[in-house]
Amino acid sequence: MSGGLNLGSPNPTSFPASFDAAVVDGGYRSGDGCWNAYVNRDLILIFDEDAWLPRSEIVRRYACAMQARFARYQGTDEQPRTWADAGNTTHHGLALRLVAEEIRSGLIEE
């Protein structure tokens, strides 16, 4: 363990916090005027036909979608930046009302 984090874990405890902070605060957006369309496209790829996904699955699917679209994209669900990027997309999706937050009790996410 380093600094209280198990860095050997595929999803250290700070990763969900990175996602949550980006969902709350947002972050970057493109300057080309197409950001809303990008968010819409990405959320369609992430959610597919699912009505609800846990945070870790949103991140995993976000990474897969970005890897499929950008040959040089290196992000995985084992990197905090990917968690923050997926949270940023979710933030904008919430703002655009493309997705809605639903908290399910009794679920434990690893």
Shape: globular
Structural class from helices and strands? Answer: mainly alpha
Low-confidence stretches: 1-7
- Using the CA coordinates, give the radius of gyration: 14 Å
Largest sheet data: none
Strand content: under 5%
Order of helices and strands: HHHH
- Overall average residue pLDDT: 85
Query: What's the helix count?
Result: 4
Q: Could you provide a short overview of the structure?
A:
The protein has 110 residues and is mainly alpha-helical. The chain is 51% helix and 0% strand. Helix 1 packs parallel to helix 4 (80-95) and helix 2 packs across helix 3.
Output the keywords.
single chain, 110 residues, mainly alpha, 4 helices, disordered N terminus
Structural write-up:
The chain is an all-alpha fold and 110 residues long. It is 51% helix and 0% strand. The chain has four helices and no strands. It has helices spanning 14-25, 35-47, 55-69, 80-95. Helix 1 packs parallel to helix 4 and helix 2 packs across helix 3. The protein starts with 13 loop residues before the first helix and ends in a 15-residue tail after the last helix. The relative contact order is 0.21. Mean pLDDT is 85; it is low at 1-7.
